Give the backbone structure.
Amino acid sequence: MFAYLVRRLLYALPILLGVNLLTFALFFVVNTPDDMARMQLGVKRVTPEAIQKWKAERGYDQPLVWNAAAEGIGQATQTIFFNKSMRMFVGEFGRADDGRDIAREIARRAGPSLAIALPTFVLGLGAALAFALLLVFFRATALDLGGVILCVAMMSISGLFYIIGGQWLVAKVWHWVPISGYAPGLTAAKFLVLPVLIGVIAGLGASTRWYRTIFLEEIGRDYVRTARAKGLAESVVLFRHVLRNALIPILTGVVVVIPTLFMGSLLTESFFGIPGLGSYTIEAINAQDFAVVRAMVFIGSVLYILGLVATDVSYTLADPRVRLQ
């Protein structure tokens, strides 16, 4: 298992390096440091001296990938690519335009993001699996048809509608919870109930249809007919056999999502005033803080690749037929 995990991680390194190179090209080749300075200082009436000062304060006055004026290894290290891109591999993200340390901000904001994402993920997964199994149990009935129609209707509604509608109904009309805000500790629970509930409801339609399709494919297999021939109840067949053998396709979508939970939800955190990583990214985009945006893109890439590795490993744990090669 250890050798298999090491191989998977080694396979992921070239992918991560390629993503890093592509991100660097988008930020510094397509959009040069001079362009960044003009966007921050104002396109009109900006002097070359002001642009040079802005670049020097943020370390953008160095060559992009090769410093011919330096000596030895400094030709490669005294560059924008090394200081702004390669250093992210060791967790050095630099400072934002407002002077705050980006790594410290990410560590501080990861907690609120997880406080929303983890309950939403766990409750949403449980609700979708239960609803899908219920529809499969009553398949080809009016309940199944009605459930599918409901799922399609829920999928057709924008997530923004759920957020605004939930805030208006639950917070403004019924006054059950605050409409937005956040507080540390146990006090945060009253601020998280509504966004978690909305997150579960918004994703229920698509997830249920996906799991229902997986379960219906398993229902027609030979081992299910054999289990029924032995006299097992339909509920036992569904929960003990179908659900277990459907874990492989379910894990494909589930495990990959787990690392990305750290990134937070852009819309949810922004509308509910949660100081998480999602709102941090939105604030950086609005402020054109390129250092923060680069850091969040890199972290997102790392987490997604780790999710793929975790998916491969989970296959071997869920199904012994999957051999480690």
